[in-house]
């Protein structure tokens, strides 16, 4: 009948629809038959399976971020605080999907990540004070959690890689928070004062260095000028020495020339002034004089023109007579 045919067609359509399934990109498909995990894993795309007796799930094998929220813990001083969110970036390797799901089910991240984060946070808080958890060592929490998670998974779930862990500031009681903020404010003021002191010291050091450089510069300039003056003095001394040598050489040349002239003149006179020439010259000199006076004792003789003036001998008035 038409109704039976329609029913059969509907059932067939449902069976076909339950046989065909799709695995999206970045995921793999895993299968259970009769509740047992099959050692089969499919890649992205369309696949077939036995209807009714086989079920499947998709498992992400790309990077994913698990958010662990509202993690309570108590510090070593007994203060209760809450970490509102811890983000864990992780990845399940595709070749380890079957083993990981067989050991921890499809919700493997609950046992391997969420529960482990709670445990590590409480371990950290219980061994540190509020000041250390909230301020001093808070920057170490991310690295500590990432290291602890990876070490644990390397042993118990080697298919899980921990990429990064990000932890938000914990929520603490408001009164304690105000006290911590006041402490941080005072620390900030202290840091500012210390920084200003460093700036002042640095400025003084800079001024000192500048003064030292200026002094060194002045000393270097003085040294250069002194060296220049020395060179100028040495050059002037050399010039003076050369001029003195030239003057001495010139004087020596002139003296040699004068000596030579005198020698030549003496030699000429020696040749010229013969006894006969000298006698002739004496006679000429006597003849050239107008008067000649002779004394009683004649130590000297004066000659000169007679112009009415008396001729005086070296010993007194002459008594001689003119000739």
Short description:
With 323 residues, this protein is of the alpha+beta class.
Q: Any idea what the radius of gyration is?
A: 66 Å
Average pLDDT across residues? Answer: 84
- β-strand percent reads 15-25%
List unreliable stretches of 5+ residues: 301-323
Helical element count?
7
Report the strand count: 12
Overall structural class, as computed from helix and strand content, comes to alpha+beta
Termini, distance in Å? Answer: 213 Å
Order of helices and strands: HEEEEEEEHHHHEHHEEEE
**Biggest beta-sheet profile:** 3 strands, antiparallel
Q: Please bin the fraction of helical residues.
A: 55-70%
Explain what you see.
The longest helix is centred in the last third of the chain and has 99 residues, at 174-272. With 323 residues, this protein is of the alpha+beta class. α2 (97-104) crosses α3 (108-126). It has helices at residues 2-19, 97-104, 108-126, 130-136, 141-156, 174-272, 275-288; strands at residues 20-23, 27-33, 36-42, 45-48, 54-60, 64-74, 80-92, 160-167, 291-292, 303-304, 312-313, 316-317. The chain starts with a helix and ends in a 6-residue tail after the last strand. Residues 301-323 have low confidence and may be disordered. The strands form 5 sheets. A 3-stranded antiparallel beta sheet has the order 3-2-5, covered by helices on one side. A 3-stranded antiparallel beta sheet has the order 6-7-8, covered by helices on one side. The protein has a two-stranded antiparallel sheet with strand order 1-4.
